[in-house]
Write the structure tokens for this entry.
Amino acid sequence: MKMKKQNVRTLSLVVCTFTYLLIGAAVFDALESDTESKRWEVLSDMKNGLVRKYNITPEDYHMIEIVIIENKPHKAGPQWKFAGAFYFATVVLAMIGYGHSTPVTVGGKAFCMAYAMVGIPLGLVMFQSIGERLNKFASVVIRRAKCYLRCNTTEATEMNLMFATGMLSSIIITTGAAVFSRYEGWSYFDSFYYCFVTLTTIGFGDYVALQNDQALTSKPGYVALSLVFILFGLAVVAASINLLVLRFMTMQAEENAREEEKENSRTLLPIDGHVIGRQRAHEDQASVCSCNCLGNKQCEGALLAAPHRVLASRLSLATDRLERASV
């Protein structure tokens, strides 16, 4: 039995994804494994030197590790005052999850789960809505630019919108990297890395803003700037991803409509002026036409036009989905 194209596409996506994962694992292994081993050797030598120098028992050394790890977040200042709590709530709602501060009480953990259950869908809808408005604004700008340049077509295509949102995303990331590099003391590359990890909601937590010099309490302007960067940047990235997903859905809908049209054209054959299935007998023709008018030419014409109406409806649905991204 011939496999359908949809199944082939799904299987191909699964194979490509796992192949991509294997390639990524091999590359990360080659880039990071040796450095990890060298760092572990250096840290082990330093640990052994400290233990010998100060005659520290393994229990005392473990206690020192706990104290240092637990005190690290507190060096950045209060994390659960209103400014820090608002920053944490933003990170939860945006699904970034740096891990720089986490609730430790039972009530805090329970409220965090309940808060995330409601906040994450709300945030997704908000980012999606803002992304649609940005796409609409970009389409208006593109149309006016094409009119000014006297192009043959003035409509904003999906490629134009993807290019515009991609450029805006690049501008936001590069500008944010410059700002964080100045305020946090990071290199520009590390700041760019932080902005990319943040706006793609990966959120490793190796670089977290607002964790130096009591910034959460002493620099309210910088806190506001960081929050605006996260929220607006996520909206722009959501607009770009929305266009890519809708483009894929449009292509899939068009291909499914063409496939169904071909299947219907192979199944419906004209015999003695009537349109019947390839394997259907004359007595089953009533099931082809719901109005039981076997000799009605109007019904036959409607049946012959049915595959085209299916194709038109599918294409209309795909086009409507794409337009909704820019409306």
About this structure: The chain has a mean pLDDT of 81.
